[in-house]
Structure formats: C-alpha cells, structure tokens
Amino acid sequence: MADNPGIAVRGVRRSFGDVNAVSDATFEAPAGRVTALVGPNGSGKTTLLLMLASLLRPDAGSIAIAGADPVSSPAVVRSRVGWMPDALGAWPSLTARETLAVTGRLYRLSAQRAAARAAELLAVVGLTDLADRPARVLSRGQKQRLGLARALVHDPAVLLLDEPASGLDPQARIELRSLLRSLAAGGRTVLVSSHVLSELEEIADDAVFMVRGTVVSEGDVARASAGERDWRIRLLPGQGDPAGNREIVVLLATAGVNTAALRRDRGDLVAPFPSDEAAAAALSAMVTAGLRITEFAPVAGRLEQTFLGLSAPEGHAS
Ligand SMILES: Nc1ncnc2c1ncn2[C@@H]1O[C@H](COP(=O)(O)OP(=O)(O)OP(=O)(O)O)[C@@H](O)[C@H]1O
C-alpha cells in the first residue's frame, strides 16, 4: 500500500437546488495518516464524503481516491474505499455475521473467505458474542461497530467514516481510536468526520475544517488556532482561592492577561491567555514565586478552539 496516494480534492462543488451544500472544497488527505473532517452542522461534511465515496456526483472540481476518479471510475473507487455512513442502513433481518459475509460476497470474496473475514472482523470490533443476532436488535453503538466492520471487509486503502464514534461507550471509543491508528499505520488513508472534537484530537494527525460548504484555508486555520484561549489553573488544596490571590492576579497581568476577564470554575481559576508563549511565561513566574500548582492546561483542545474560532463570527451554518 506504499504507493497509495490518499485523497486529493480540488475545487469541488455540489448544490441541491439553491442550497450550496459544498461550494469550494480543496484539500489532501495523505496515506498513512488519520485526517479529521470538522465543521458545524450543515457545513457540507456528509455531502463531501458522499462525493468521495462515488455516491454523489460533484457539480464541478476533481477528486482522486487512491488515484481513481469517482465520477469516471466509480467501480474502481468503490473497490478501494471503505465507507461508513453515519447510520447503519441495510438488512435489518440479517445477523451481524451474515451482514459481513454478504458484504464480502458483494466484494467478490469466495464464500469461504467471506465467512472467515466476517469472523475476523466481528472479533476486531468486539461483536463476536452478538454475531448471530439480527442487526435490527443491536444497540446504536453495536450497529456503529457493525458499520465499521462492514467498511473494512475488503481491506480498503481509503476509509471514509462519517461520525464513527457516535453512540460508542468510552471503552469502544478507545478501541476505535487504536483501530483507526493502526489502520493508518498500515498505510491506509483514514478520513473521519465527527462532532466529538476532544476525541478527534487524540485520533487525528491532520484536520480539514469546513464552514458553510467551504474548506477553510490553512492560513485561516492557523490564525483561528493561534488566538486567545482559556487556561485552567488549579492550586494544591489548602492554598486558598486562586481567583482571590493578589500575587497570581499580578503575575497574570504581567503575562498579558486581561484580569477583568478572569473567572472561577469549580474552585479553579480560568485565565484567557493571548498566546501559548504568554501561558508558558506565567506558569514559569508562578512556579518561581513558590505557588503550588497541580493543574495548568488549556480548557479546550486545539481542534475545539479552532472550530470555535472559525465558527464564531457568523454563528453556526445551520
Ligand atoms: N439531498 C439534499 N437535498 C437538499 N439539501 C441537502 C441535501 N443534502 C444536504 N443538503 C443540505 O446541504 C447542506 C449540507 O448538508 P450536509 O449533510 O452535507 O452537512 P453536514 O456537515 O454533514 O451536517 P451534520 O454535521 O449536521 O451531519 C445542509 O444545508 C443540508 O440541508
């Protein structure tokens, strides 16, 4: 899979009547990495994923999936792509095992190979105990796992996953994370959309942000992620209220924090630092001053902060 070139998208557009669902998408998702597709509700993520999966035709632009064009070569693209929609659709009366075996047959695996692959994937996604139950009785999280297994049946070079973590319990999310990371480490291209930004932060190597149908430029992403952000400061218990500690307030002001915007949160102090450099300087000064700090960390992750920075000016798209 070393020569798998991943996903390349240039100037892609798609409208539904007068709704410009995707108005300008340009980005690359390289092989060997997990790329997050992030955007508010209605920003065009699902529409874009459907076009990448060859299930929807773009109005304009070009797409290459592991080197193949979904418009001119949909069959080639489908053989290279594992597609997991945000809800498991088909075949409620088939069991989990049958669902995977039938999918394997659709990908032209022999009956024996399809059965073996089904058993293998049921184990990978933790559904072996439920293998012979009809898919319709599975819980939402179990259906998500079956959907993921279905996307992996033909060992695709490119995985397109729409909200794969939704409905999963914490243990299943941890397993999903390590599975996606190992699939990427094996040379596959993984593109994941999700609203759970804290989780994407841990899974993804890169992020593509969409706002109102447009993929945001790298420069705008860098600006949104470099702005002011809140940091949580926690003192060792018994050190008093950090928000009422004059020494801390003076040190924060020296580091460039607007102290009028300081706030309390569950006994901690939350301070808006203008930059990571300012936060580092303040931490160093507080430690030097002998303050006993047990936590000093950004309140929101980098993806979440960038997401909020990009969405804030005009609100959410939907
Ligand atoms: N088949 C369709 N017909 C008409 N409008 C559509 C169709 N599919 C999507 N849209 C519209 O296109 C826009 C983008 O929708 P899309 O589902 O791609 O967004 P999304 O980013 O996946 O949203 P969410 O995060 O809520 O799943 C929305 O305004 C939606 O209403």
Strand order of the largest sheet: 5-6-7-3-8-9
Low-confidence stretches: 313-318
Query: What is the CATH domain class of the largest domain?
Result: Alpha Beta
Q: Hey, roughly how much beta strand do the residues contain? A: 15-25%
Structural class, by secondary structure, is: alpha/beta
Give the ordered list of helices and strands: EEEHEHEHHHEHEHEEHEHEEHEH
Provide a concise account of the structure shown.
The protein is an alpha/beta fold and 318 residues long. The protein has helices at residues 45-52, 74-80, 96-106, 111-124, 140-152, 170-185, 197-203, 218-226, 246-254, 276-288, 302-311; strands at residues 7-16, 19-29, 34-38, 60-65, 81-84, 158-162, 189-193, 206-211, 214-215, 229-235, 263-265, 268-273, 293-298.
What would your notes on this structure say?
The chain is built from eleven helices and 13 strands. The chain has 318 residues and is α/β, with parallel strands linked by helices. It has two domains: 7-216, Rossmann fold (3-Layer(aba) Sandwich), CATH 3.40.50.300; 227-311, Alpha-Beta Plaits, CATH 3.30.70.260. Residues 313-318 have low confidence and may be disordered. Adenosine-5'-triphosphate (ATP) binds at residues 16, 19, 21, 39, 41-47.
